Amino acid sequence: MSHAFISNKLIHPSTHPPHLFPRLSTSKQNIKPQTLISTIHPMVTTNRFSPGFITKVEDNKAGLVGEDTLSHLKSQLLQQLQGINRGIFGVASSKKSDIEELVKLLEFQNPTPDPTLNLEKVGGCWKLVYSSITILGSKRTKLGLRDFITLGEFFQTIDIQKSKAFNVIKFNARGLKLLNGKLTIEASFEIASKSRVDISYDNSTITPDQLMNVFRKNYDLLLGIFNPEGWLEITYVDDTMRIGRDDKGNLLILQRSEQDTV
């Protein structure tokens, strides 16, 4: 899951962790993902979301699913995602259940069951539209995300030729004349199975310098939230949508974007 910068960027080599101020001697192995392992859920036997559009198992043996079915499910899912700010600051449990239910239906009818054998479907730029990763309580306060700093779009660019992923999180600080900035995390990936990739953190940058200074004290906290290191199971991908589940138990939903963020 993917992932030319100006000269004032601060780059952290892969042999060091993202401790910015001051430089420390510890290694990137200190950046450890959580150990909760997610599982891919079976088909949900529900008629909650327009059952007439759900393809039966026996009709899907050849791996072919009706475009109308997937289009309708994706439309319903995107409707559920409206107004929740990608879920980053929490979602009501009922809404979260509805999202999960629709995701399972899409995963069950994944038109690309072997995504790492079809990397052309995975490569390119994607925009995050939902994540079960949340920034709540004291974390949100420490990062200034209640009043001072606003999160913008989340993009991921995957370079399949170089086996690289670039995650770009945009934000602005209202106290600095609406100064825009971004956190960029570069990672490498290796194919682990027909649907899973292993991801390693390489380096990170935060620009411009004014916003780098804002995050100086809590940079490790910020990077710990968005660090992609671990594994990612690609559970659904087509020409416009990608869904994944990682080793930390997070659900990620992305839409293809034409924007070049690298």
Shape: globular
Instruction: Give the total of beta strands.
Output: 8
Kindly give the count of domains: 1
Radius of gyration: 19 Å
Tell me the β content.
Answer: 25-35%
How is this structure best summarized?
Belongs to the PAP/fibrillin family. The chain has helices spanning 67-80, 93-108, 137-142, 209-214, 219-226, and strands at residues 124-131, 149-159, 164-173, 179-191, 196-207, 230-237, 241-246, 251-256.
Question: Could you explain the architecture of this structure?
Answer:
This protein has 262 residues and is an alpha+beta fold. The protein is built from 5 helices and 8 strands, in the order ααβαββββααβββ. The protein has a single domain (67-256), classed as Lipocalin, CATH 2.40.128.280. It has helices spanning 67-80, 93-108, 137-142, 209-214, 219-226; strands at 124-131, 149-159, 164-173, 179-191, 196-207, 230-237, 241-246, 251-256. It has an 8-stranded antiparallel β-barrel. Strand 3 and strand 4 (179-191) form a beta hairpin. Helix 1 (67-80) runs antiparallel to helix 2 (93-108). The relative contact order is 0.21. Keywords: Plastid, Transit peptide. It comes from Hibiscus syriacus. This is Plastid-lipid-associated protein 7.
Descriptive terms for the model:
8 strands; disordered N terminus; 262 residues; eight-stranded antiparallel β-barrel; globular; alpha+beta; Lipocalin; Plastid-lipid-associated protein 7; 28% strand
What is the strand and helix layout of this fold?
Elements (H helix, E strand, L loop, with lengths): L66 H14 L12 H16 L15 E8 L5 H6 L6 E11 L4 E10 L5 E13 L4 E12 L1 H6 L4 H8 L3 E8 L3 E6 L4 E6 L6
Antiparallel strand pairs: 1-2, 1-8, 2-3, 3-4, 4-5, 5-6, 6-7, 7-8
Helix pairs in contact: 1-2
Pfam families: PAP_fibrillin (PF04755)
Protein name: Plastid-lipid-associated protein 7
Family: Belongs to the PAP/fibrillin family.
